[in-house]
Amino acid sequence: MMIDKIQNEIISEFEVFDDWLDKYNYLIELSNDLPKIDPQYKTNEYVINGCQSKVWLRADLVDGKVVFTADSDAIITKGIVSLLIRVLSGRKPAEIMDAELVFIDRIGLRENLSPTRSNGLLSMLKQMKLYALAYQTKMARQGTTSTPAGEKPERNG
Q1: pTM higher than 0.90, yes or no?
Q2: Cα gap 157→155, rounded to integer Å
Q3: How does 101-114 read in b/e, with b if 16+ C-beta sit within 10 Å?
Q4: pLDDT 10s digits, 68-90
Q5: What pLDDT does 156 receive?
Q6: What angle do CA 40, 148, 144 make, to 5 degrees?
Q7: Residue of 37, 51, 59, 104 marked active site
Q8: Sorting pLDDT into bands at 50, 70 and 90, what band is 157?
Q9: Cα gap 97→91, rounded to integer Å
Q10: Average pLDDT of every residue of the chain
Q11: 3-142, what's its fold?
Q12: Is the confidence at residue 2, as pLDDT, over 50?
């Protein structure tokens, strides 16, 4: 499914709620859909800097597409990262780097987060795009379109 179509689905899902308390509750529900990171990767190496809570993010390249898994010690943050993964996981690196995530503003997420959570959202998105850039660079150097599952690029930041 195309990135824009998934974003439109998310926007439609959030439009049914009138207030942000209901939207927060929905984010909590979405945390159950988060593709969980393997516990062995819940280390400092995979922690996203800039988040108020702990967020672990891992990316693998499978058949030329970046697949993300994550976890967080905060339930709302889990919901937020699950939305990002829903939109960006399973995409080619260039698609991730070029993606404009309009749903974040359209559902009012950015304006209804605390400043520290908003910074965390930007940090999660930045790390996802850095993983995509690293994989794209690695594939270009190798002259291939895929990396064996589990092999990761050099981490930036």
Answers
A1: no
A2: 6
A3: bebbeebebeeebe
A4: 999 999 999 999 999 999 999 99
A5: 43
A6: 145
A7: 51
A8: very low
A9: 10
A10: 90
A11: Sufe protein. Chain: A (3.90.1010)
A12: yes
Cβ count within 10 A of residue 48: 22
CB atoms near residue 131 (< 10 Å): 25
Task: Tell me which amino acid residue 71 is.
Answer: D
113 is catalytic: no
Domain segments of the chain as ranges:
3-142
Radius of gyration of the chain (CA): 15
Return the pLDDT at 117.
Answer: 84
User: Residue 147 corresponds to which tokens in the numbers above?
Assistant: 């990396």
- 82 is written with which tokens? 């699950």
Q: Whole-angstrom Cα distance, residue 140 to residue 144? A: 6
113, two tokens:
């987060």
Provide the 3-class DSSP secondary structure of residue 128: helix
* Spatial distance between the Cα atoms of 40 and 83, rounded to a whole number of angstroms: 23
Structure tokens at 4: 């824009």
Phi/psi at 36 (5° precision): -70, 140
Q: Is the pLDDT of residue 148 over 70?
A: no
Nearest one of 79, 70, 88, 81 to 32, comparing CA atoms: 79
